[in-house]
Amino acid sequence: MAVQQNRKSRSKRDKRRTHDQMSTPTVSTDETTGETHRRHHVTRDGFYRGRQVVETGDDD
Length: 60
Prior knowledge:
Strand 3 and strand 4 form a beta hairpin. By secondary structure, the protein is α+β, with helices and mostly antiparallel strands. It contains one helix and four strands; from the N terminus they run H-E-E-E-E. A two-stranded antiparallel ribbon has the order 1-2. It has a two-stranded antiparallel sheet with strand order 3-4.
């Protein structure tokens, strides 16, 4: 197993960790329903780019 020769400073460690954070997903609004959804994903109603692509079972 590799063992480091010199201790890394807190500054160097924290500079590396700045890019490890989670980013919030980008949200878009559907043209037809006005519902917000993640980019490149289908809405809860089954719409994608203004067209219904998935039949949902919650229509009564």
